[in-house]
Automatic annotation (TrEMBL):
GO biological process, one term: biotin biosynthetic process
CDD domains named in the record: OAT_like (cd00610)
Stated name of the protein: Aminotransferase class III-fold pyridoxal phosphate-dependent enzyme
Keywords on record: Aminotransferase, Pyridoxal phosphate, Transferase
Cofactor: pyridoxal 5'-phosphate
Species the sequence originates in: Pseudaminobacter soli
Highest rank taxon of the organism: Bacteria
InterPro entries hit by this protein: Aminotrans_3, Aminotrans_3_PPA_site, PyrdxlP-dep_Trfase, PyrdxlP-dep_Trfase_major, PyrdxlP-dep_Trfase_small
Assigned protein family: Belongs to the class-III pyridoxal-phosphate-dependent aminotransferase family.
A GO term for molecular function: adenosylmethionine-8-amino-7-oxononanoate transaminase activity
Entry annotated with the keyword Transferase: yes
Pfam families xref list: Aminotran_3 (PF00202)
Length: 444
């Protein structure tokens, strides 16, 4: 049965909107348009439902249209539309910051609100440099990222990211960046479930890089605890601990970009708790408001905040921020999300579902075109061998096939990237996996 929503009536409406990361001419030919969403599904203009295996874009962790979140936003909108957060605020911002502090790893006690993951990353990088400046160590400006890292599309995040094709055509990025390689050895790590066992020593590369860069010039190391957009690469056991120890040894701040891994995706509030490694600065967005209102956050350690507060007079005020920081609607949505974590145990639910998700996904091994599968928590990727001479074609064909069967899966090149809402059922896991298997048997 073909269940892809049909949008013929809306095709002519696509002429004014330039979509992100979208080949416009292809899109205009066959636009994908959803008019509603509920629980695990998107709904098309014709009323057909499509199972969402991507939680929107890694963000709708509690499922679409959660009534508690909808109601919180509705109430907030009727109470206070907007207040600047420059030298003033509102009660929900204060309450939400305190609740986030309790949700975050111990020792990360101060929240700076922004409106997206990109803003969170650029803010975190600026805070890292500002921290050293406030301590009289302003020579520390270098920022170290990692191959395959995705840190949003601001110039800062792009500079530390490790995906070359996103950088081309945009001119010079931040000077003073360096990159670690991906801690991934296909010989021993392919098709592994959760953290690969072997590879903690791969963190030692940071020590080698620092000897080249001069550790006294490095401000921060930024990594996604699990590489997300770059292809879902869980960290080998011991790797994050290794980075933590080396950063400590050299007075370098460690930043975890938890825009994807935060808010339950790994069965804990953040990856930091799941892996037992606490960064100095943590960025989040996406699941924070369940995707319902744009919001991001930078949660910093006491020592980071204190350095600004006890630094020279110009650092007492952080000359950085955004008009919509701590927007009342976003704070209300954020608190409703934390209610769901507290009252419904959303992270625990993800932790219970994860083993089944991981094993079912790994069972796709052996199907045509499958080069690798990596999965941890409710994250996963099926990596396909590219069609000779046509990179990305198999990924696109697979996504198209699944959509026609009523399952939305996201293809990024030849990667089938999966991050379902955390409320996914056993049957829905089975349906997603079976549809991908069917696609692999039928494309080409
Ligand atoms: N960091 C990471 C790890 C991300 O995955 C993303 C978005 N996918 C971002 C930052 C950027 O977030 P946004 O698109 O909200 O700016």
């Amino acid at each position: 049965m073909i269940t892809r929503p049909r949008n013929e009536g809306l095709r002519n409406d696509t002429d004014a909107f330039w979509l992100p990361f979208t080949p416009m001419r292809v899109f205009q030919h066959d636009p994908l348009i959803f008019t509603g969403a509920e629980g695990m599904h998107y709904i098309g203009a014709d009323g057909r439902r499509v199972l969402d295996s991507a939680a929107g874009l890694w963000c709708v962790n509690a499922g679409h249209g959660h009534p508690h979140i909808v109601e919180a936003i509705r109430t907030a909108a009727g109470r206070l539309d907007f207040v600047s957060s420059f030298k003033m605020t509102h009660p929900d911002a204060l309450a939400y910051a305190r609740r986030l502090r309790a949700f975050a790893p111990a020792g990360l006690d101060y929240v700076f609100f922004v409106n997206s993951g990109s803003e969170a990353v650029d803010t975190a990088l600026k805070i890292a440099r500002g921290y050293h400046h406030a301590r009289g160590d302003g020579a520390r400006t270098k920022l170290i990222g990692r191959a395959k890292g995705y840190h949003g599309m601001g110039f800062g995040g792009l500079s530390v990211s490790g995906i070359g094709r996103y950088k081309r055509g945009f001119g010079p990025l931040l000077a003073d960046t360096a990159h670690l390689s991906l801690p991934y050895k296909p010989e021993t790590m392919a098709f592994s479930q959760g953290q690969p066992a072997d590879g903690g020593s791969l963190a030692d590369e940071l020590e080698t890089l620092l000897q080249v860069q001069d550790p006294a010039t490095v401000a921060a190391v930024i990594v996604e605890p699990v590489v997300g957009s770059g292809g879902v690469y869980p960290p080998p056991r011991g790797y994050l601990e290794g980075l933590r120890a080396i950063c400590d040894r050299h007075g370098i701040l460690l930043i975890f970009d938890e825009v994807v891994t935060g808010f339950g995706r790994l069965g804990a509030p953040f990856a930091a708790q799941a892996f037992g490694v606490t960064p100095d600065i943590l960025t989040c967005a996406k699941g924070m408001t369940n995707g319902a209102v744009p919001m991001g956050g930078v949660i910093v350690g006491n020592h980071v905040y204190d350095a600004f507060m006890s630094g020279p007079p110009e650092t007492i005020e952080l000359f950085h921020g955004y008009t919509y920081s701590a927007h009342p609607l976003a704070c209300a949505a954020g608190m409703a999300v934390l209610d769901i974590f507290e009252n419904s145990g959303l992270a625990e639910q993800a932790a219970r579902t994860a083993p089944l998700w991981e094993t079912r996904l790994l069972s796709v091994k052996g199907r045509p075109h499958v080069a690798d599968i990596r999965t941890i928590g409710l994250l996963g990727v099926v990596e396909l061998d590219p069609r000779p001479g046509a990179p990305g074609a198999r990924g696109a064909a697979c996504a198209q096939f699944c959509l026609d069967q009523g399952v939305l899966v996201r293809a990024s090149g030849d990667l089938i990237v999966l991050s379902p809402p955390l409320v996914i059922s056993t049957e829905q896991i089975g349906l997603i996996v079976a549809t991908i298997e069917q696609a692999l048997e039928n494309i080409d």
